[in-house]
Amino acid sequence: MRLPLIPPAELNTEQKSLYDSMRKGIASNFNAFQVEREDGALMGPWNPWLHEPAIGKAIWDLTLAMTANAVLPDNVRQIAILVVGARYDAAYELYAHVAVAEKEGMSAERLAALVADLKPTDLSKEENVAFDFSYALSRGGVLPEPLYRLAIATFGQHGTNELIYLVGLYALVSTTLNGFNVPVPERE
User: Fold this and answer.
1) What is the DSSP letter of 8?
2) Cα-based distances in Å from 42 to 1, 8, 11, 82, 185
3) pLDDT at 187
4) How do residues 151-183 score in pLDDT, each as one tens digit?
5) Cross-referenced PANTHER family, in alphabetical order (predicted)?
6) Dist. CA 172–CA 167, nearest whole Å
C-alpha cells in the first residue's frame, strides 16, 4: 500500500466529513467484504479518496449516484463490474465484488471465468449483453455500433447509459486501486 491507512482520530475536518459519509454508504451498500481495519481506518479505494478529499468526495458522490439510481439488475451490474476488475487485474476490486457476487448466489464456475477475464458459458441474454458490452468498452476505442444498439434494445437508453457510466466508474476505481497498490485483506 502506497498510502497509509488513516485512523479516524487523525482525520482533518474535510476528511472526517467524507469518512462519515463513506461509512454510512458502505454500511448500506458495500457490506459483503472487509472495508475497514479494527481501528476504523477505511481500506480499499476509500483510503486513497480520504487522502485527497476534494477528489474523493466527487468520486464518492458518483458512486452513490450510480447506486441510488440503478435500474440495471444486480446480476448485470456485477457482471460488468467483474469484467472491468478482471480487465485491470485490480485485486481488491475482484476480492470485493467476488464477495458481493457470492453473497448474491453467483456460481463458483461463473466467478472463476469472470475473474480469469473469460466469458462464462451460462449467461442469460441480459448478462451476455452486459459481458460483451463491458468487455468491449473496457478495452478502449469506440464501442461497436451493433453492440450499442443491442444494449439499447436490451436495457433501454437509461440502462445503457448506466452501463457506460458503470464501466467508467469501475475503471476509475480499478486504476485507483492499482495505482496505490491497495492490498486485499486476508479472507477467512
Assistant:
1) G
2) 13, 9, 11, 22, 12
3) 60
4) 999 999 999 999 999 999 999 999 999 999 999
5) 4-CARBOXYMUCONOLACTONE DECARBOXYLASE FAMILY PROTEIN (AFU_ORTHOLOGUE AFUA_6G11590)
6) 9
Specify the domain boundaries for CATH 1.20.1290 within the chain.
74-180
Phi and psi torsions of 104, nearest 5°: -85, 0
Backbone angles phi, psi at 169, to 5 degrees: -60, -45
- Return the CATH fold of 74-180: AhpD-like (1.20.1290)
Cell 457490506 -> residue = 31
- In contact, 60 and 19? CB cutoff 8 Å: no
Give the separation between CA 7 and CA 148, rounded to whole angstroms: 44
Contact 87, 117 (CB under 8 A): yes
The pLDDT tens digits of the residues spanning 72-91 come to 999 999 999 999 999 999 99
CA distance 151 to 141: 17
Contacts from 50-55 at CB under 8 Å and sequence distance 24+? 50/6, 50/11, 50/15, 50/18, 50/19, 50/22, 51/3, 51/6, 53/14, 53/15, 53/17, 53/18, 54/14
Smallest CA-to-CA distance from 73 within 32, 137, 120, 130 is with 130
What's the rounded Cα separation, in Å, for the pair 5 and 22? 15
**pLDDT tens string 101-145:** 999 999 999 999 999 999 999 999 999 999 999 999 999 999 999
- What is the structure's pLDDT at 188? 47
